[in-house]
Amino acid sequence: MSQSLLIGTIFMTVIFLSKEKFAFIFTNSDDMIHAASELAYLLGITMVINSVSQTISGDLLGLVNREFCHNFTFVSILSIS
What we know:
Helices cover about 80% and strands about 0% of the residues. It is an all-alpha fold. The protein has one domain (about 1-80). It is elongated and about 40 Å long. It starts with a helix and ends with a helix.
């Protein structure tokens, strides 16, 4: 999870530092560039949340699968007995 958080933080920092310039890749319109620079903070925070959420949901799925296997094994042992 720390690696995902680090990568998300790096990309957030890049977006924050280049908020006035990254929209030039997509458009030449001054109005669109200004609008994109206003939304850069939201984009940066979203990048961090998305980078961590995948890791957290994977950990939760692993926990659920582990609990399911434990319960399934316990029920199987009771059924055999």
